[in-house]
């Protein structure tokens, strides 16, 4: 996957990037409820799970906006990936631990879903932090907390404060006023994303949930 270097001196975001990376190192999170009232029964009718559909939707959003693909590479070079795939967590019920998995992405949902199913069948019983080795560098983290319908979620990342990629977490969906809502939290670094970009993510994710017939192949 191609990594495109950013020329900082020609980047119109340079003063914001330097301020929020070097002077006031700052991340922020936003949580919103995504309406999946129609999407959930459509998936169930096809015998499909919500989690891989969620992974598909968030990946489509991430790959639409460069701000969510901007990071440092292994050499510390600032740039952005041409496209990215999710590195997602899954739960082991028997010992209440979790592992991470990555699955090759496909623009066609049904292809990605089958890739997900195949990976879970092959690696889903592997214990430890990493279930599937050789994770490529062009991944972003996604996780799920399906036991609680949270109204806010925040991660505190220590270190040098140079982690720039979005961190996406979903919660337990719930019913409210006749709608099925899925809480979704997005955490970003202010050096590369503002409130505007976080809003784009939430609004685009909602659009993908609403336009489910197109990518599920329902007429």
List keywords for this structure.
alpha+beta; Chloramphenicol Acetyltransferase; Cmp_AcTrfase; Chloramphenicol acetyltransferase; EC 2.3.1.28; chloramphenicol O-acetyltransferase activity; Chloramphenicol_AcTrfase_AS
Give a summary of the structure in a few sentences.
This protein has 219 residues and is of the alpha+beta class. It is built from six helices and ten strands, in the order E-H-E-H-H-E-E-E-E-H-E-E-E-E-H-H. The strands form two sheets. Strands 2, 5, 6, 7, 8, 9 and 10 form a seven-stranded mixed β-sheet that branches.
Low-pLDDT residue intervals, each spanning 5 or more residues: none
What's the number of structural domains?
1
CATH superfamily: Chloramphenicol acetyltransferase-like domain
Number of strands: 10
Instruction: State the distance separating the first and last CA atoms.
Output: 34 Å
How many alpha or pi helices? Answer: 6
Instruction: Report the portion of residues in β strands.
Output: 25-35%
* Average pLDDT number: 97
Return Rg in Å: 18 Å
**Share of helix, binned:** 25-40%
Shape-level CATH architecture: 2-Layer Sandwich
Major sheet details? 7 strands, mixed
Which CATH class? Alpha Beta
User: Helix/strand-derived class?
Assistant: alpha+beta
Run of helices and strands: EHEHHEEEEHEEEEHH
What's the overall geometry? globular
> What is the CATH topology classification name?
Chloramphenicol Acetyltransferase
């Amino acid at each position: 996957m191609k990594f495109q270097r950013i020329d900082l001196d020609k980047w119109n975001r340079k003063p914001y990037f330097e301020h929020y990376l070097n002077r006031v190192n700052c991340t922020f999170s936003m949580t919103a409820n995504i309406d999946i009232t129609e999407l959930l029964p459509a998936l169930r009718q096809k015998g499909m799970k919500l989690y891989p559909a969620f992974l598909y939707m968030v990946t489509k959003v991430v790959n639409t906006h460069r701000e969510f693909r901007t990071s440092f590479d292994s050499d510390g070079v600032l740039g952005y990936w041409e496209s990215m795939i999710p590195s997602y967590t899954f739960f082991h019920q028997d010992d209440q631990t979790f592992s991470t998995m990555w699955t090759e992405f496909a623009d066609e949902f049904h292809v990605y879903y089958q890739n997900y199913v195949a990976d879970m069948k092959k690696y889903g019983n592997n214990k430890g932090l990493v279930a599937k080795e050789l994770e490529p560098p062009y991944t972003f983290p996604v996780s799920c907390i399906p036991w609680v319908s949270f109204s806010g979620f925040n991660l505190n990342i220590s270190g040098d404060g140079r982690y720039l990629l979005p961190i996406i977490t979903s919660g337990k969906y719930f019913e409210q006023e006749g709608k099925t809502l899925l809480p979704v939290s997005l955490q970003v670094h202010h050096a590369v994303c503002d409130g505007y970009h976080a809003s784009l993510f939430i609004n685009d994710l909602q659009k993908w949930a609403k336009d489910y017939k197109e990518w599920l192949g329902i007429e």
